[in-house]
Write a structure and sequence with these properties.
The chain is 32% helix and 26% strand. It is α+β, with helices and mostly antiparallel strands. A hairpin with a 5-residue loop joins strand 20 and strand 21. It is globular. Pathway: Purine metabolism; IMP biosynthesis via de novo pathway; N(1)-(5-phospho-D-ribosyl)glycinamide from 5-phospho-alpha-D-ribose 1-diphosphate: step 2/2.
Length: 426
Amino acid sequence: MKILLIGSGAREHALARSLAQAGADLVVAPGNPGTAALGENRALVATDPDAVAALAQELAADLVVVGPEAPLVAGVADAVRAVGIPVFGPDAAAARLEGSKAFAKEIMAAAGVPTALAHVCTTLDEVAEALDAFGAPHVVKDDGLAAGKGVVVTDSREEALAHAAECLAKVGGAVVVEEFLDGPEVSLFCLSDGVTVLPLAPAQDFKRIYDGDAGPNTGGMGAYSPLDWAPEDIAEQVVTRVAQPTIDELARRGAPFVGLLYCGLALTSRGLRVIEFNARFGDPETQVVLARLDTPLDEVLLAAATGRLDQVALHWRDGAAVTVVVAAPGYPAAVETGGALTGLDEAEAVPGAWVLHAGTALDDGGALVASGGRVLSVVGTGATLADARTTAYEALARIGLPGGQHRTDIAASAERGEVRVPDATV
């Protein structure tokens, strides 16, 4: 199967790895040095719908898989479908679920999906009123795309207002102020062909930069799967109460969602609640979810893109997976790029481990260097979560990046059996 994969991060490297293992003939655009070892990289502006559609036609692609959110919101999937090529990824109208948090709240309200109470604000006075109404901790979200870093959760009213002011300063700026949700978080990916919904295995990610969930939010510093502490029927709950009603509501509005609905959830003392929706695979959760998927990924994504998801049964490998992100110095604020990367081959020599590229590039001399904030995802697998953690961190210890940073506590609480779910969600 000829597949064109759009994107350049660790999520796309994880997708490329699984697609290549399934035997796909792969082109990644624009790709990264890691994906170049799995197929052909092609230079491309990923947010240019016409350019993506033209490349798909040139390649005679059987399927186009869109990884990041920005191309989806820009209408890349629309353009490719218009030339008759199947696409895994929603049209721009359905991708608004991620492109606008206010729109996502509107859809959830219409579909009866449980989520946090929220106010959509377009002025600082409205923000101040909403903050006072909900009280601390304050949750303020940029309404538009922010690469996973548009959310501030803080006890400081001043910090919340400052973040809101920054978001509102954008053209057409708006923010969503929400009540704070207690309880552990779960990421559940749901495949959709516009009608049928098929859940993948749940995962948990770690958004803050430092150990102990300290410091600012990032695009994600690590993840693990499975979640032994979550209710056994969590996937069924999410499909029934969240994903299927959302997909049905979008179809009712004439915007069928074909692709990956990312359900970011909190298991609270008042029950299951949606924190956010994304319209694509999450990063870094994809790295661990795909590490456990045994069903060939190319067949699954093509079935979703062509309305045949009801014919798919997913099979999962036993054991666990953990991924730890290596970030550049200064991330997530003033990122320092250009640092030399070493030890990747040694890391991948650890049994059950592999390294996925995110922000990497080759310098003029052909040496691998850091080129972005999140540089690598180091994946470890094992029979147990403890084994997977040990593998991931053993591999990571062999990688060098001057000034690089990573969290040392990914999945540690789960390994120790310390994650607790309020009784209301069981």
